Amino acid sequence: MRLADSLLPRPALTNPSLLAATVSSLSRRAASRQDLWRLLTDSYTVDLDEVAAVLPRQEPEPDWLPTKR
């Protein structure tokens, strides 16, 4: 977040359906999951646990699976 922006209040997303819609909208613009988190937290005040509940689970692949090419 830029310094000047840190002085401005960010809208709070507290409604679960609005939060889900916002995450869905931002995910189209985000290049990665980390970028999605950055876009969301730069623009809104959110409960991070609520956001994590809305995002699809990201499970690591087991080591025994062959590498995808």
Which key terms come to mind for this protein?
69 residues, 3 helices, 6% strand, elongated, two-stranded parallel ribbon, single chain, mainly alpha
Describe this protein's structure.
The structure is a single chain. This protein is mainly alpha-helical and 69 residues long. It is 46% helix and 6% strand. It is built from 3 helices and 2 strands. Strands 1-2 form a two-stranded parallel ribbon. α1 (16-29) packs across α2 (33-43). The protein is elongated, with a radius of gyration of 15 Å. The termini are far apart. The mean pLDDT is 80.
Topology:
Blueprint: E1 12-13, H1 16-29, H2 33-43, E2 45-46, H3 48-54
Parallel strand pairs: 1-2
Helix pairs in contact: 1-2
Class of secondary structure makeup = mainly alpha
Largest sheet, in brief, is: 2 strands, parallel
Query: What is the count of DSSP helices, taking H or I runs of 4+ residues?
Result: 3
Radius of gyration from the alpha-carbon trace, in angstroms: 15 Å
Topology, number of strands = 2
CA distance, first residue to last residue: 36 Å
- Across the major sheet, the strand order is 1-2
Q: Report strand %.
A: 5-15%
The portion of residues assigned to helices is 40-55%
Shape by Cα distribution: elongated
Kindly report the average pLDDT value.
80
Oligomer: single chain
Model regions low in confidence, pLDDT < 50 over at least 5 residues: none
Q: Secondary-structure element order, as H and E?
A: EHHEH
